[in-house]
Structure formats: C-alpha cells, structure tokens
Specification:
mainly beta, six-stranded mixed beta sheet, 50% strand
Amino acid sequence: MAFQPRFLDIPESRLELSEKAVELRGSVDEIDFVDGMPGLVRHVAPQVAAIGAPFRVRGWALDVGQRQLGEELAFEIGPNRTTAGFDEDRPDIANAFDSPTLSECGFRAGVPTTGLTPGQYGLRASMRLKGDDIWYVFASAVVYLAAEASLAPALSHEQREKGRVELRGGIDALDDFGKHRSAQLSGPFPVAVGTALVVRGWMFHPEDSIRSIRARLGELVVSGWIGYPRADVAAMLGRSEAASSGFVVPIRLSSTPPGVYRLSIECETALGWIGFSESRDITVLPEAEEFPTESRMLREPLRATIARYDREIESGTIVRFAGTIETRDFAAAYLEIRDASVEGDGEPKMRYFSLSYPVLIDGVPQFALELTGRELKRGRYEARVVATTPDRRAYRAAAQKVQFDVIASRSRRR
C-alpha cells in the first residue's frame, strides 16, 4: 500500500495523540526571493514570487512537549509539495527554550512554483516527527505569484507626462535572486539569463489612487504588487495615505536575450497608465560559463581578500564566504577550493565556485558565496580567490589562501 500522509493542524492547546503529548511550535520567519545576506534594502518581506521561479522560506520548528526536533519538513503551495530537512542553527530558539540540543531546529528551503498560475496562494508548512507518519501543520502564510513578462506597446509621450509632476516615488532596490546580489547605487546592474530580478520601491500620487503597477524592461512589461507598508514614506511626505505605497515587481528573465535594457516603472491611475521619470539600466548577461581551466595564470596577484569564513564546517550545513575584490578588470570571479587532505603524489582536485559580486554586506560592496556542506566531503581544504581576464584566456589569483575543515555533523555524532 502506498504511503498516505495524514495532516493535522495543531491547535494552541496541546494535542494528545496515541498517549503522546505533541506541543508543536514554529514559524516561517521569512518568505522572499532573496534571503540570507545582510544589508539588503528590504522594508518588508514582499512574499511575492515569479511564476516558474522558486522562492525561499526560512524559519524553525520543533516539538516543545517532548523537547525534540522534527525528522522532516514539508511545504505546500497549490498542488506543489516539497520536502526539506533541518540545516540551519537557531541558537536564539535554543536559548528561548533553555535547551542547547534544540539549536538545530532551523530550516531554509526552496519552494517551487512550477505549473501554478498568477494569483494568491496559501503556503502550508508541516513537520513529521521521528517514527511518526503524521504531518503536523505548524505555520501558514499567503504568497502572491506574479505573472510572466508580456509584450506591451510603449507609452505615448502624453501618457508618460500625465501626472508626472504630482507622482512621487522611486526604485529603492534591485535584487538578483539567483546571485544573492543587490544593486549598486549607480551604473548598470548585471543579471544573468534565467535568473529572477526583484524590483522594490514606492509610488504615491497625491490626487489619484494607484490601481496597479508594472515594470517595463525593454519591450517587456511585468505586473507587480503595490500596497506594502511604508511608514517611512508617510512620515517623509506627511501624508498618511502613503503608508501603503510600497511595491515589488519580480521579473523572471527566462527568455530575455543578453543585452542592455532600460528598466522603468509605470502606474495605472484614473488618468490611465503613467510613466515615472526614474529608470535604471539593466545588463542581461549570458549564462555563466565554467572556469576556463586551460587558461594561463598571470604573475600579477589579484587584489582580493576572504574576510569571512568558518575554519570548521559541519557536513551538510550552509557554507558562506565573503570578502573584497579591489579591481573590476575581470570577466568573472571564483573561489578555488583545493582538497588539501590528498597526500603523497596524488593530484589535488580543484573545484571552482562562481562568486557573486558586488553584494552589499553591512553597506559595503563585497563578494559572497553560499553553498551546502554536501558539496564537499569530510576533510581539509584550501581556498583562494581567482578571477579571469576579460578575454578569459588568463586568470589572476589572490596571494591569500585560507584553510578550513569539513567535519561530521553534530547530529550524526550524537
């Protein structure tokens, strides 16, 4: 007989099942295109995803009654259901329940939106306990799925100018979901074909209400969502009506050819569609290529530093590196990781992981890399930053080399 899971919503009081007290607690702390990187310009979690692109959820869950962790997680949206494990430490939750053994109750998972249509969906998060076939629902949330880009004629000069004097607003942030990267204050913002770009900002018209909002990227237009809390805008303008002027537009770049495009925001009011004067240049890059291992190494060192990393990493956990690159004269940057545990005449295996640059970390442009410890087997490793020249026929390497160990996870050692 096929396994048929049973789902139960946990009430606020304890639920007695088979003489076992289950007191589930947990939450979905974050639903967003971009998470895990500090310093991003984010006023509220938009809870908006683009059709075909996964969104990330982050939170925690455990059984407080038995003081035990869950065995497996499940996330449902529409007919889509995906399972995940616990792979993030939450010392704040362990401290709250005064139990260090509960620190592994955190999760970070991707939820697919494939096959869904635009609209509003309920997200249900559930957990299965060890030795139990019941899935306990511990959290729910609402997620908005935006439409794919479509073709639309450009606004006429009259449409662009209507109400432009009264219209207030701006683009606060551009986030590249695929690369965990936020926009610099100036210059074209690069994104890769196939990734998702999230545009955030605010828009307010003192005379007419804004019915809907969309972003235009070249000939493509993508609908977005407006109505997110912006108390800072209301205070700045002295208008309480502007407290819900925040907007977010996710753009799935699945079929956009490489090139430079002008990104602009358009609003629909009683006057019709109005163009906003502010715009940004977006550079859509071709899909990233593998590191050219046949390229030659230049003697001139790369001015790059790995400033943040863990010297000891548990297998299966999230691995994060961050640092600085002081030059922009390169095609792509990578973290070169060498297996330093190879002894004797064995050839050390090199692996290359593409670095995201620039990322705003504590307000400073840096590079970043995030991968799971499953990418590396247990052992000792050596890492350095390398970057290819614009023609990719040569590369430079940073003089700094850092070492770190991948060890068995604490859950397996217990």
